[in-house]
Amino acid sequence: MNQNYYFIGKGIGMKRNIEADLIRWKNQIGRLPLILRGARQVGKTYIIEKFGKEMFENCVTLNFERNPEYKECFKSLDPMKIISAIELISGKEIQMEKTLLFLDEIQECPEAIMALRYFKEEMSKLHVIGAGSLLEFVLNDSKFGMPVGRVQFMYLRPLSFGEYLDASGNNKLRNFLKNFHINDHIEEVVHKKLLSLVREYFSIGGMPSIINEYLESKSLFQCQEKQTSILLTFRNDFGKYAKRTPQEYLQTIFTKAPGLIGKWLKYSTLDPEIAPKTLKIALKKLCEAGLIILVHATSAAGLPFAAHKNEKKAKFLFLDIGLVKRACNLDLELLFKEDLSLINDGALAEQFVGQELLACMGIDEMNELYAWQRQEKSSSAEIDFLISIGSKIVPIEVKAGSIGSLRSLKIFLNEKKSSLGLRISEAMFSINHQIASIPFYLIEEIPKLVKEIYGMPNFSIK
């Protein structure tokens, strides 16, 4: 059996990109305790326990939600006393360098988060990982003292399209994409196969349990039932978010957000009867939970984008494209017939691209995506996404049709004196002057391809 695969449900193998990062963390000199962040049901618990079983002699897991009695072990912040108490209660031995101590649902025990700094200072040889789905609520609490500089963070998201290729037995296709270079050619039959898998992913999304269901049953309709169940589970969690925010406001945003993907946020669109300030607080909670991602407008005046971010102007993305498809009740037949860039007025394609761009980010980065808009009566323009590769700002449009019709992209390139823009669509990979056409399935390789394009001897850099 390939040790790079773990198993979910009845035994479908999946490979996650973060596994290599976890191994690097384990072997790092001066290693810090690790906290793995991410929304519910993206696979945090399973991937850490799998990592613990494969890479350590034993893994000791404390789940503060299921076994709240373990909270008592952290009344003292002394690592020696904490470990002694855990060993006595669990009956398991904890050894330096040989044991992984996994603190699951760590947000239920803020003292455990605070204790991490002392593990770093007084017991640095012990490997400790914490994880929690609603962790941001604790970390962002003004009353909580975060052990800054004593903890490392990683972020886990739904499976990317590349990870789906591995999970579905198409690892040769993924390896082909990883080894694709700008001068290479993709055969039409391979192009069509990859697009058919993208359509499949549009329907299923990247939630591990949904992918597992599809790989076992091959039934998109059964996947829809599970997607409905996940959406209901998230709604049932609202009571945990709602200590200061009434649940009905969370429900309003959660229900309407999938239908507003790619549109600029207007609180009056969400509910004209609710005060914008109240909706803003509820939206912040859903963003902290990882269910909604905001794509903020930036002037693109320079890097980092955050320095030029417009806090009052943003677009919606959702946690997962499969959940968006289900929440919008989209006809499955559309996903296998219509141009991917046009389904639901392009919203599904924009969700997919945003999700893939997030997957390209470092695992220690949060959900930060940016867009650009110019509002002038005679010449308005909008760019779906902006990314930075090295010192370069690269605009991205998600568009069907010919390269010649990319008016906003050309306006941006001219106004910002940029050398390269990207168009994401079903079209084959190509480079036409300042614009590269990237097929949906190659988004993961954008950083590499952009660097290669800038390195072309005949490429004009402004």
Question: What is the residue-averaged pLDDT?
Answer: 90
- The gyration radius over C-alpha positions equals 23 Å
How far apart lie the N and C ends?
51 Å
| General shape | globular
* Coarse structural class: alpha/beta
* Total count of helical runs of at least 4 residues: 19
Largest sheet: 8 strands, mixed
Proportion of residues in β-strands: 15-25%
What is the subunit arrangement here?
single chain
What does this structure look like?
This protein is an alpha/beta fold and 462 residues long. Helix content is 40%, strand content 18%. The protein contains 19 helices and 15 strands. It has helices at residues 18-26, 44-55, 79-90, 110-122, 135-139, 161-167, 171-178, 188-204, 208-217, 220-236, 238-241, 247-256, 267-270, 276-288, 321-327, 332-335, 347-360, 407-415, 446-454, and strands at residues 6-8, 12-14, 34-37, 58-63, 99-104, 127-132, 152-155, 292-298, 309-318, 369-374, 381-389, 392-398, 421-425, 430-432, 435-439. An eight-stranded mixed β-sheet has the order 9-8-10-11-12-13-15-14. It has a five-stranded parallel β-sheet with strand order 4-5-6-3-7, sandwiched between helices. A two-stranded antiparallel ribbon has the order 1-2. Strand 11 (381-389) and strand 12 (392-398) form a beta hairpin.
Give the SSE map.
Blueprint: E1 6-8, E2 12-14, H1 18-26, E3 34-37, H2 44-55, E4 58-63, H3 79-90, E5 99-104, H4 110-122, E6 127-132, H5 135-139, E7 152-155, H6 161-167, H7 171-178, H8 188-204, H9 208-217, H10 220-236, H11 238-241, H12 247-256, H13 267-270, H14 276-288, E8 292-298, E9 309-318, H15 321-327, H16 332-335, H17 347-360, E10 369-374, E11 381-389, E12 392-398, H18 407-415, E13 421-425, E14 430-432, E15 435-439, H19 446-454
Parallel strand pairs: 3-6, 3-7, 4-5, 5-6, 8-10, 12-13, 13-15
Antiparallel strand pairs: 1-2, 8-9, 10-11, 11-12, 14-15
Helix pairs in contact: 6-7, 8-15, 9-10, 10-15, 12-14
